[in-house]
Amino acid sequence: MSITLHNLGFPRIGRRRELKFALEQYWRGELTQPQLLTVAAELRRTHWQWQAEAGIDLLPVGDFAYYDQVLTLSATLGVIPPRHRQGEIDLDTLFRVARGRAPSGQPAAAAEMTKYFNSNYHYLVPELTATQQFSIRWPQLFEEVQEAQALGYQVKPVLLGPVTFLHLAKTVGEPFDKLQLLPSLLQSYQQLLARFAELGVEWVQLDEPALALELAPDWQQAYETAYVTLQTVPVKLLLASYYGSVAHHQSLISALPVAGLHLDLVTAPEQLAPFAAALRPAQVLSAGVINGRNVWAAELDLLAQALAPYAQQLGERLWLAPSCSLLHTPVDLTLETELDPELKARLAFARQKLTELQQLQQLLQYPTSDAAQAIIAHCQQRRAQQAAAVDAKVTARLAALGAEDFKRQSVFLQRQVQQQATLRLPLLPTTTIGSFPQTAAIRQLRNRWRSGELADVEYTRLLQQITRDTIERQLKLGLDVLVHGEAERNDMVEYFGEQLQGIGFTRFGWVQSYGSRCVKPPLIYGDVSRPQPMTLAWAEYAQSLTDKPVKGMLTGPVTILHWSFVREDLPRETIAYQLGLAIRDEVADLQQAGIRIIQIDEPAFREGLPLKQSDWKTYLDWAVAAFRLCASVARDDTQIHTHMCYSEFNDTIEAIAAMDADVITIETSRSHMALLDVFEAFDYPNEIGPGVYDIHSPNIPTVAEMVALMQQAAKRIPLRQLWVNPDCGLKTRRWEEVEPALRHMVAAARELRRQLG
């Protein structure tokens, strides 16, 4: 018996974020395009080599992207908005779509960006018109296949399947049914697959994660239509779905004429049995058993026990793989030389997960070998040593919570009166989301402090100077509600995690969020508590510099949870409440110190939604409760804000309203205020700040553009409920972009006040 190992995708940023830095240098004009392409080629070569050395039989090609793999496929199919078409599609075209500008060509409004299913990865939303034409226009996929083949590798091209591509796209222009484009889209897919066959490719992986959703009948029919059409292509198709169970579509999927199926058996191990039973005689079953979205080492001995009957039944038709692309995990654990050895022994990053696949293969093929017995012994020893860190005080505090701990003292309308009297803000108050530019000087300062070159006292003094400068800039701009700028923070989650008990950190555990933006998720390994205040000193200092209100800035419990690698021995709900208590204590301290506005950011609130809508209520109940646990300690005259970015709100609006934040700020500039339709239809009761400045683009919006956006917002939301703010924090932007954009934003608010008398 020979079990095939394959991989659904590998992180592309490089273990030291080489791609991130090369991209940013190229955008700044410090690197030529050939130099950028050289960095990318070296990364691909290295990643392929690592996978081959780990025994991966079929290497993924098509998982590399210069910004986003959905955008790469859009370019391949010629799905580029007219505003970004400036001649033939080239690399700079992709950057204009993603960022609104590139080193060449004219700037244009960037495409909409949103979360990829329930992950923290963001994709560029394809824009489709009723007369959309598909044609092969961008050769990156084919070039990379040839590149890998020239190195002697057997490759498996990986691309988004046609139905999921349509599902993720949005329509522009006159309304129409996206599915009417399926026949012409399938023609292009046939051409794509035929090109792969000409290159000598045997297997192609088509990702269809939309199958994990509860699909309407016409979308279910689309799958049958698509794969019946594609069965004539001269390559073998591996249909892959992930992020959840597809068992509710089992009869549909099992009937599709594909050569193999990939199942996510981490999120839904129970679906293995029915799919294995329905497998056709020559069909391959790929078991996604290594977690592609978390960093804890796999229980290989237990996995081998569960898979052994299927290995005997299927023989060579059983393949082993991660549950999904390893895009969501850091690259290489070997770099973590400073990590606590006991914690490090519990981890596996992307490279180590490939080794785990090889070890699992060993256990299944040679279960009595010395190597297999050594693997089993290691797993048993690790389990014996990794008893979770239990904090009896945290456990007792959670048990003592009652209904009153999850409610504000008064309803919003009563709170609003007190807040207006206290804050005395004008109509359409202006503010920002929290962070200001993290300049090279700030990063260098932090590095000097972390290395011990700079003493704590001097570090604090220099950061205070930066904070004072940030406050003075905001006062000069004329903003109504200020922020301290977060110069002391490395990341909105990591900063808090570093000050909480039960959370660990890596140095190189970077994961791509979008484009060149990378995050380093904390490791929640034990019970969480707050030993001391985390933000109080900075909030007090910033407020001492001005009579205008300065927001206290916190990251909410649901976002800390979703943007961390979380222990798997407790329900996520329990961990969210532990985090909620920690943030609640911070809110109480800020309020006691006289901070009148406190923002508890929850950008990941929607990210945690189960893919099946029928499962949403359970999640939304505890996610809302975790936020309310933080906020309920606030007095009526303390204004609680929250921020959510790049999410669709239509189907969660009731839960968002139930959070009962006094003010919510959201991303709306890329969607041209379309996201506000649901707030209008629902009659959202509290205050809203719809973003008018797209901070993910270096373009500086004009006063007229912002006025137009706010005029659209005013048609949907009562004026007394409206705030004026950017889409998100300004950490990634430069002051040369930020100051004129905010100056225009303040001018736009004043112009609207003038127009409204």
From TrEMBL:
Domain Cobalamin-independent methionine synthase MetE N-terminal: 6-312
Domain Cobalamin-independent methionine synthase MetE C-terminal/archaeal span(s) in chain numbering: 428-750
Source domain of life: Bacteria
Catalytic activity of the protein: 5-methyltetrahydropteroyltri-L-glutamate + L-homocysteine = tetrahydropteroyltri-L-glutamate + L-methionine
Official protein name in the record: 5-methyltetrahydropteroyltriglutamate--homocysteine methyltransferase
Manner of cofactor binding, per the entry note: Binds 2 Zn(2+) ions per subunit. Binds 1 zinc ion per subunit.
Binding of L-homocysteine, residues: 433-435, 486, 601
Protein function: Catalyzes the transfer of a methyl group from 5-methyltetrahydrofolate to homocysteine resulting in methionine formation.
Native source organism of the sequence: Shewanella fodinae
Gene symbol of the encoding locus: metE
Alphabetical UniProt keywords: Amino-acid biosynthesis, Metal-binding, Methionine biosynthesis, Methyltransferase, Repeat, Transferase, Zinc
Binding annotation for 5-methyltetrahydropteroyltri-L-glutamate: 17-20, 115, 120, 517-518, 563, 607
GO terms classed as biological process: methionine biosynthetic process; methylation
Residues in the signal sequence: none
Family: Belongs to the vitamin-B12 independent methionine synthase family.
InterPro entries with a match to the protein in the record: Cbl-indep_Met_Synth_N, Cobalamin-indep_Met_synthase, Met_Synth_C/arc, UROD/MetE-like_sf
Active site feature: 696
EC number: 2.1.1.14
Pathway field: Amino-acid biosynthesis; L-methionine biosynthesis via de novo pathway; L-methionine from L-homocysteine (MetE route): step 1/1
